[in-house]
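Protein fold
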Amino acid sequence: MMNLQDGIASGQPADARRRRDLVKALLLSIHRQLASISSPQKIRLMEVCGTHTMSIFKHGLRHLLPDRIELISGPGCPVCVTSPGQIDAAIKLSDIPDLIVATFGDMLRVPGSQGQSLAKARARGADVRIVYSPVDALQLARDNPDRNVCFLGIGFETTAPVVAATLKMASQLSVNNFFVYSCHKTMPNALEALFSSKESDVQGLLCPGHVSAIIGEQPYGFLVEKYGLACAITGFEAEEILLGVLSLLKQLASKYPFVDNCYPRAVSPEGNPSAVAALEQVFQPSTAVWRGLGSIPGSGLAIRQQFKRHDAESHFGIEIEEPNKVSGCRCHRIITGQIIPPECPMFRKACTPENPMGPCMVSSEGACAAWFKYGGERL
């Protein structure tokens, strides 16, 4: 097994045949390791990251793994966990005269609580533009000095440092018509909220590689200590995900869970101190509302006073009103591992990529989009 792990962790390019051999060897090891776990019950493992979800489906890993192993999606799709109230607020922003709303493409078609979306707002005349980075939005503000530009800040610790750097740049250049609506969220507190409910029967976590590259290994330690969860930080190729699954099975068999970094070519134990420092300089922890998890103290990122000049929430007087209920959509249950997409009564019926009822069908990292695109997986 050490040779397999060394080969995967090295980061060296692998040709298709070598990768197939690695996958076959890992699957064989997984079957053998599973046989050493005496309990006949299903083993439920949660992939926290939405990119993991897409990769698992793309490579058909749910079909290749033994039936006893059940992979479920967690709250790792940033668009999916954005609350309905924040979506509604973004749509209201787009109605402000002479304001340009800049957003990542995934946000364009996410429906709010009343069935509206930024795409529909654009169709009725709102100036909503797709950008590929917050720096693009800043340049948009510089190119349009007579108009305000608001960037929708969606994402976890992976994208937030780039937004922090952009806010610093806007401040230094005195681009006073540039604003950020910060809907950023941080992962550890959400996992605390998810597993403190005592309703989850998840036994192990495939921890997000992208987020871990920023925050490192230590923030997951409480999941082991408080909840006895096996944890494996993994990359996104088929062999990297399988290596993480194998690690989780070994931990469960030994009854000695820990945080195993199976992605050392991208994740160091301490993470990225420079990115963390940028986050701490520009943002401060705040209470955030997550779809499916509710209000979680310390899980949001609010813009600090030093950069308040660029805070859309305070400048435009954004008031977030969370609806009591979003009828029909079951995204809130899917991203907390309570159900899988085919168990939603709207999946493939009222809810399709052409007519999405919720963010999980819209986002490129959404579980419903993955199930729809790569259909045919076993239930």
The longest strand covers residues 294-303. The domain at 79-186+272-315 is CATH 3.40.50.11740 (Rossmann fold). The mean pLDDT is 91. The two ends are 30 Å apart (CA to CA).
